[in-house]
Amino acid sequence: MAGKRFGGFAVGFVIATSTLLMACAEPGTDSAGEPTEGNALRAMPEGVASLVLRNGKVATLDDAMPEASGLAAREGRIVAVGTDEEVAEWIGEGTEVIDLGGRLAIPGFIEGHGHFMGLGNARMILDLTTASTWQEIVDMVGAAAAEAEPGAWIAGRGWHQEKWTVAPDILVDGVPVHDDLSAVSPENPVVLTHASGHATFANARALELAGITSETPDPLGGTIVHDGSGEPTGLLRETSQRLVRAAMSEWESQRSEAEVDARLREQVRLANEELLRKGITSFQDAGSGFATVDLLKRMADEGQLPVRLYVMLGGGFETLEGRLDEYRMIGYGGDRLTVRSIKQVVDGALGSHGAWLLQPYADMPSSTGLATNPPEAIERVARLAIDHGYQVNTHAIGDRGNREVLDLYERTFADNPDQTDLRWRIEHAQHIAPDDIPRFGQMGVIASMQGIHGCSDGPWVMLRLGEGRARSGAYVWQDLLRSGAVVTNGTDVPVEDVDPLESYHCTVTRQVADGSTFFPDQALTREEALKSYTASNAYAAFEEDIKGTLEVGKLADVTVLSRDILTIPADEILETTVDYTIVGGVVEYARD
């Protein structure tokens, strides 16, 4: 297979931009000017496939034919699934034939909840995910400050206090104060985002530019943490992060439009590159603004979106009113971009003590978390959404947050009895009161969960909730399935690595870093877990007719794995590699 270049950058593996394989008058259209399917067509003789996979195990997830050995694709769609002999009938001049050599081919992984631009941005700032101590983070910032221009902002993401092996000498609410950080970056404002995205740590210069002092009041839905003398420690929870973000945005506004556009396009490029390398063919983006959708639409027109995007619009009632009809689109650019849902947020995260609980935190009895957005404001958006044909997907992590969202959904459903296929979602659904678990199935609310959270959070969840609450309502995937609910999978990238194999492994093992298991009775079977990453995610985006299973007529989105994750020992799942990522019948990534 010939090597290609993606986005103008050479890489150490094969990534083929689909526009190089198109036979069309302009990006997104065929030679007659009509929209293409899959944005990656080639002119092939009648009855000849552009791509054939054979000599493997094809796990279709189609009940009518669960397994095959081969698959053929033409014009972006699957035209045959069956034996090697059956798919060989589609081989002709120009057909690309891949001998799977016994490897496993599955429906392309669909990331069910992540932050697309956030993934790209995370590759352009300090990566704090590997830091095992606060001192390591201070050292990283110090090194960055030594190279930065005075006044330039330094950003990073991924720290988590529960993952540090050594605690700092001074702690407030389990997190250090800014003194050491400020000492190594006196002339550069610093903002370091928590792994969850629901808290930020700022140094003295950033606090100064944001106007945060001992007298600054907490904003609605946020907390400015203070030390014993009343001075801000640097930790900003939930909406209080916006104060330093606003100051940083003012500095960034000095960039030219061309510089801003180039940076955003680089974020898109980096995100696509990583997703393809990890076998992801579709990505459900959990909250973007209109300007981001405009950029993605332009890039779809240019053929620069190899990964298919399902974008949830972010914002409140005033932001969204009057614009929903203009931005609603399904399958734009050859099924590359869909906008038909709205993202809302009711609370924060467990790790930062921001999840909204019915009872106080076990390790912070003074707090039940935060309502970052009043439920009545979300309900107002929900009623706007139902009037304009939009799905509503609400972030809720704590049991109080989940209950409030279920309640407002239930009221909205009751007032619109003619709407019977809404597929509204709760994003994360991490901690649910036992009485509320059956409501997901009863109401048809989708539990949009992230398997990997169960393993990364497992070591400290009981610190936050206590064993009883953790056992009865935390990360209860099997209980939700038994309620009749659709349970989906993802990573919430950049909160976690976007690797679907790591999340799949956690979903079927519930094994945490020390080798113990976190309530293993809630683990999914291998097939249930695979469906949660493919067919269920397709259903959650109203795309089950074109994605999620390998059937004739559906988009030819396929991921080829080096090992059979449905049968190998669990510890070998993490040793499995993505060998091919195929989108619309085009090999967009191949491992060397």
Straight-line N-to-C gap:
10 Å
CATH hierarchy: architecture of one domain: Alpha-Beta Barrel
Q: Write out the CATH superfamily name of one domain.
A: Metal-dependent hydrolases
Mean pLDDT: 91
**What gross morphology would you assign?**
globular
Helix content bin? 25-40%
List keywords for this structure.
592 residues, alpha/beta, Diaminopimelate Epimerase, Chain A, domain 1, TIM Barrel, 8-stranded parallel beta sheet, 6-stranded mixed beta sheet, 31% helix
Description:
With 592 residues, the protein is α/β, with parallel strands linked by helices. Among the domains are: 117-252, Diaminopimelate Epimerase, Chain A, domain 1 (Roll); 346-533, TIM Barrel (Alpha-Beta Barrel). Helix content is 31%, strand content 20%. It contains 20 helices and 25 strands. Helix 15 (451-465) packs across helix 18 (500-509). It starts with 50 loop residues before the first strand and ends with a strand.
